[in-house]
Amino acid sequence: MLSFPYQTVYLKKSLYDERYYVSDFEEGAEPPAPDSLTVQQEVDSIAPYLEQLTKHEQKWVIEYSINGRGITEISRKYNVASTTVKSWRKSAIKKLRQLGITM
Could you list the residue range(s) of the whole structural domain that residue 29 is in? Predict the structure, then answer.
């Protein structure tokens, strides 16, 4: 058993570690890929639809639907404003709906 001053230090350190824990995702690690299909298989499955979209719209579709990223995460990754990513999303969804696909 630890003596009183050491218990206090240990408790403070453990509370600090819990409060300021940085998860793997926050450190920039990629989110885990789905178990059923590889990322490439998923991209291949939607490739015919991606051909109808601009490069930016394709980025949004892949990042959102396959990698599970949100607007803020996508905007950080590509170093653009979140309103820009929202624009990619809006135009991609509009084109995909015209093709009969809902997201």
Answer: 4-98
